[in-house]
Amino acid sequence: MVNKCAAYGCKSGYKSNAAIDAENKVSFHSYPVNDPELCAKWNKANPRRDFIPSRHSKMCSLHFRPLDFVDKYSDTNSTRYKNKTSNSESRIKRELKPGTIPTIFNAPSYASTIEHLPRPTTNLSAACRREGEIKRINELENEFNKSDQIINLSLEEILYRLKKETSAPSGYQYQIFENSLVLYEIHFDNCCPHIKSSITIDEQKNISLFNKGREVSKSFVEGIINKKVDTMNQLLNVMARLKNLQTDHAKVTFDEAKAAAKQQLKCCLGSVDDEKSLFCKIVDMLVIEDAIIIDNNYCVKSHDVKRMIAERFSPGDIRIPHHAVPNRVRIRISTRAFASAESFLAGIRHSTIDPLRV
User: Fold this and answer.
1) Distance CA 267, CA 261 (A)
2) What are residue 41's phi and psi, to 5 degrees?
3) CA nearest to 210, candidates 227, 195, 225
4) What is the Cα–Cα distance from 83 to 296, expressed in whole angstroms?
5) What pLDDT was estimated at residue 181?
6) Cα 198 from Cα 209, distance rounded (Å)
7) Which GO terms describe its cellular component (predicted)?
């Protein structure tokens, strides 16, 4: 039977096209009717409506890509085939690779399909993608940490990076003085300039902090650095923390603490509007000892608290069971973070207690 191409609009196999077929060395390949799944793909790729392939249906080689073929030597003479003594090209036949589908047709673009090779990828699952994202994040973090190191830089290089740093706290000025890098803030008070705070870094990257002429303890920046500045990020954090420091660490006197505690208690009790609120104010104070302890050194006796309550409320105004009124009131205050009696009071912490245990 004469081979004729079953593709839409193809003239291969017809007498009128014999010369072109010979010139292009057109070969014909049968429809894979024995493989229904592959045959359905061939039929879908062929833009020919209502075509039902048979075992005689053929598709010419013009509808396949060159990489779809494989050359095989074929010879019916077993001896000649075994020794392959003949080099005639007529004995080499082109065969389709298994699973090949035709993709080239002389049809409008909307009616022709082109098979795209799948792009190789390693992100086959969500776990692989997450692992890749974590790896990229770790690489970026390591790259950032490496570029952030200043421990091996000279003071001049650190100064240059500080001047280029866009996230540095404002108000600081930088200068190298006597083999040390000095970062300082200048404030004006009544037209008189003074250094509010400063940071000194020596060549070994040791750091010293000063605020209002007094050295600040290293514990102030504990958690940011140990003894030396290793990274630019650490230095910027130290600068920001020192800039936000508004007070020094001087101890307040007993009289200041006592007066401040009394004033704070008056403010607390003065905001009470009814009996229930006053009861909660009293019970919420931590009852432990017979004093209001301030920094473990100073105290205000609890009878002063009772006196202030009596001054604020007359006996006929409130009625509170005697067992529910704390006889001993203690308020813990830390002076390490405050400089004056006014700011000192902001650190008072009230703890809830069980009134039945009073």
Assistant:
1) 10
2) -65, -40
3) 195
4) 106
5) 92
6) 6
7) nucleoplasm
Contacts of 274 (CB under 8 A, 6+ apart): none
pLDDT digits (tens, 9 = 90+) for 199-213: 999 988 888 888 888
Is the pLDDT score of 288 beyond 50? no
Give residue-wise pLDDT tens across range 296-351. 333 444 555 555 555 554 554 444 444 444 444 444 433 333 334 344 344 443 33
User: What residues contact 39, with CB distance under 8 A and at least 6 apart?
Assistant: 31, 32, 33, 53
Tokens 């030396």 found at = 228
Give yes or no for a contact between 346 and 338, defined as CB atoms under 8 angstroms apart: yes
Closest CA to 197 of 207, 27, 205: 207
Which tens digits make up the pLDDT trace of 67-83? 888 887 666 666 666 56
Highest averaged pLDDT of the listed ranges 76-90, 228-242, 342-356: 228-242
Residue positions counted in the chain: 358
Q: Is the pLDDT of residue 165 over 60?
A: yes
Do the Cβ atoms of 281 and 272 come closer than 8 Å? yes
**φ, ψ at 305 (rounded to 5°):** -65, -45
Residue 43 CA to residue 210 CA, distance in Å, equals 85
Nearest-angstrom CA–CA distance, 83 and 81 = 6
Give the span between the Cα atoms of 57 and 13, in whole angstroms. 12
Helix (H) or strand (E) run with residue 299 in it: strand 298-301
Contact present, 345 and 334 (Cβ < 8 Å): no
Per residue in 26-59, pLDDT tens? 888 889 989 989 998 888 888 777 788 888 888 8
